[in-house]
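Researcher: For the record, we're logging two predictions in this thread. I'll number them. Prediction 1 follows.
Model: Prediction 1, sequence and structure:
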Amino acid sequence: MTATEPKCALSCPIFVFVICSKSNRYRGGMGTTGSSTRPSTEPDTGPTTDFSDAAPRASRPASGTAFTAAAARAAHLLVDTEPVIFSDPLAATLLGDRAEELLAYHRLHGTHPVLAGARAQAVCRARFTEDRLHRANSGIDQYVILGAGLDSFAYRSTSTRFRVFEVDQPATQAVKRELLDTAGITTPASVTFVPVDFEADRLREQLVQSGLDPFRPVFVAWLGVTVYLTRKAILATLTDLGGFAPGSEIVTDHLLPAELRDAAGNSYAEAVAAMAAEQGEPWHTFLSPTAMATLLTDAGFEVVEQAGQRDSVAPELWRRADALRPSALSALVHARIPARPGM
């Protein structure tokens, strides 16, 4: 066994941790109701496995899924061949002293359909989001990242256009700031950390108190979350976000119901959903594009674009010799708040 080789096989809990990379940080809701979004009738799934060792000792309160999502983005540059779908050169750095172990799974088992699927999910949604964020004609210069985790946009972007609001739980933010400091990465003055208790705080109010201008449009990224929420909680969050200024935009994603998934999507879902439930992180909500569009419309948005994984990036990016393949597992949606009557 080498220094970078994982200490267990594909069936061990740490491997489950690595591949279950969709964040459930908002399973408790976004603070719009002040109560948990988990249904009261949901059965107890048992204790959640402690994956605190996936972070440095001083960082153990951090969300483990922040590390696994970053590992998937980092592994894309190490395991997959060109063309690169999304380049996050800081992702490996922000994994800290756990980088070798977390990335070793992708190096040794990178062709495994679940690991390859996790990388495809991570890089496609990131590319889709940042391509739309960077449109020169939008006029938006306020960027809110919900569940920012180890997102590195603010630290690798050469643009001075955006004021970035990183929203997350205080513990996860403390870990990120420690990792940035250890890596010698300076936090730009344009970055504001917005610590939020998602079960008690009102998201929009917290953002305004942190300096966001509510009278100017904002771009919101909300990725890897909705499957862990009830439909009611998703609508409550979108409704809160729908109170931003007209012209504001959002990109979010959602898992498709089984009847809309292809064989690869169903295989991924069957493998990962079962393991996620065993770890106390059950998947709750699967939405068709029509159902997601309805939720957005009810919250005050108008849908601009919807895309499956294959259509979320340019066709030439799927001309590949590696294990990355598009699957019908999830979908992305880009929406905006239209002008209101009388405005």
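Researcher: Logged. Prediction 2.
Model: Prediction 2, sequence and structure:
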Amino acid sequence: MTASSIIEYIDRYDGDVRHRLLTVYELIRSAVPDEAVESISWRMPTFKLGTEPLFFFTGTKRHIGFYPTSDAIAHFSTELAAYGTTEHAIQLRHDATLPTELMREIIAWRLQQLPSDRVLVSRLGAPHRSAAG
């Protein structure tokens, strides 16, 4: 059965994986604007602003999959050289420290890329643009 909320999704995991998923959730939630919607899409925790997908993430046996868009992965390719990546995902292995500072930078960069004339204030007070114009 598919989880109906991000917290329900995270609660299906135990121990360190649950803690790591919760950390990723909190990093994203603290940065996105209040208008961002949390959901489960493609069986993954998802944050959207209007119809614009912002971030997806997922837990696997060996890593956390973090999906900040292919543009973000390309932009941070040098910083991500030590991590497994695909065109759309960053693989954050469970046997390595979660790179929270790098993730904050990626999240902030991604939010700055949103196409819109409207500027919103995130939960951290940093201005960024909304996809809902």
